[in-house]
Amino acid sequence: MDLDRAKGKLQSLDCQLAQHKRFINCVTLDANDESIYCGTRTGDILEIIVETAGYRRCGPVQKIFHGGIHQINAAFPDTLIVSTAQGKIAKIKASSMVFQDEVSLESGPVVSLTNSREKIYSLTAAGSLFSVLATEPLSAVTCFTTSITNPVSSMHFPAGFGEIFALRSRDEIRIWNVAD
User: Fold this and answer.
1) CB 58, CB 46: distance < 8 Å
2) Whole-number Å distance between alpha carbons of 164 and 121
3) Rounded to an integer, what distance in angstroms lies between the CA atom of residue 13 and that of residue 30?
4) What is the pLDDT of residues 112-138, one digit of tens each?
5) Phi, psi (5° rounding) for residue 140?
6) Nearest-angstrom CA–CA distance, 105 and 123
7) How confident is the model at residue 22 (pLDDT cuts 50, 70, 90)?
């Protein structure tokens, strides 16, 4: 991608993906702005080098997420957190693309995945909000709340606020404080 600040325009670049032909569901950039991770409909992740717009690798190694990857979070060092259409969240080691951990959430597909400074939050289509410390195994996930009645379309932690987040649904916006 090329940014022309004087004209205020953004130019796209084509990425060479070797022999891979995929439908991309989601894209995220790592914290160092070096790699782009693309979640695909086929359930794998393509890693693209930002500087050259070139394909680096496909992962995770020996693991496919059936139903596709809906979101990728690269906020924690050397860790990718992914959510799937089947209501699962998983950890993948970013440097090697090796699958590490996975948990199935009981309340349907994950519609939003975000993080605070220390925790991972996932919201399901049924309105259940789950959290787990990023340093813990995903099996330690707990249900934070189930009081959301309308389908939620997004969840976001504002920059600099590790304990406050906003949820947006069809009819409302809710601000939550998740201080322990």
Assistant:
1) yes
2) 12
3) 18
4) 888 878 888 888 877 788 889 999 999
5) -85, 10
6) 9
7) confident
| Cβ neighbours for 102, distance < 8 A, ≥ 6 positions apart | 88, 89, 90, 91, 138
Residue type, 25: N
Q: Is 111 exposed, middle or buried (0-12, 13-18, 19+ CB in 10 A)?
A: buried
- Which amino acid would we find at residue 14? D
Question: Which structure tokens are listed for 151?
Answer: 């389908």
In a 13 Å sphere around the CA of 24, the CA atoms on its Cβ side amount to 14
Q: Which two tokens stand for residue 13?
A: 């670049």
At 6, the amino acid letter reads: A
The token duo for 152 is 């939620």
Pair 164, 174: CB distance under 8 Å: no
CA 15 to chain centroid, in Å, comes to 21
pLDDT tens-digit series, residues 34-60: 999 999 999 999 999 988 888 899 999
Across-strand partners of 35?
49
Q: Which of 156, 157, 155, 150 is nearest to 172 (CA)?
A: 150
- Extended beta strands in the chain, E state: 2-4, 9-11, 24-29, 35-40, 45-49, 54-59, 69-76, 79-84, 88-93, 98-104, 110-115, 119-124, 129-133, 142-145, 152-156, 164-169, 173-177
